Amino acid sequence: MPDNSEVLAACPLFEGVSRQDMEAMLQCMQARIIDVPKGGAVFRVDGPAEYVGILLSGGVRVFRDDFDGNRAIQATIQPGELFGETFACAGVARLPVSVEADQSSRVLLIRLKRIIETCPSACGFHNRVVLNLLKVLAAKNLLLNRKLEIVSRRTTREKLMAYLSFQARAAGSNHFAIPFDRQGLADYLGVDRSALSAEIGKLRREGVLESDRSVFTLLQ
Fold this sequence. Notes:
The protein is of the alpha+beta class. It is 41% helix and 24% strand. The chain starts with a helix and ends with a strand. The model has no long low-confidence stretch (mean pLDDT 90).
């Protein structure tokens, strides 16, 4: 898959795998590529939890809708990142979330059993990929704990400032962009959009931050 070699080389699942081995590895694992239009589903809730997805281009979101139709965004996925691996590794029968493209996207799908089961050819890269998968799962667990720390705050203001502070630390700057529009940010934080917009306006008037769509600057 030469057109995707740069993205795959940067994917944490394939860390330590040479580009020369990449093509043979993907064939051994029976990887396949799908193109998903904006708004299209990669995975649907209650679907089988057996695939690991790698985003090659575009962008997708992992989310859950409750009985009343309220959406909670679990994660946004950027090119080179994995999704679905937690549920596949946990052995759950059905997915508790959906994964949907928020722009035209290309996704590489690998059945989990093709990663963790030793193939008849005893390919040398299998052990390396399994170790990488464990590292990815550990990193995702840290991110989940971080999100729980954010959304467990009591007020919209506290949730927002905790999230923005984390994004600033991750960017290494008080000026940064987030991967959400206002509705997406409200869904991620689990708050009402109008209340979130009102709080951002209040923080701007207080001189705490500046914002322009998805770009923020923390002033204090």
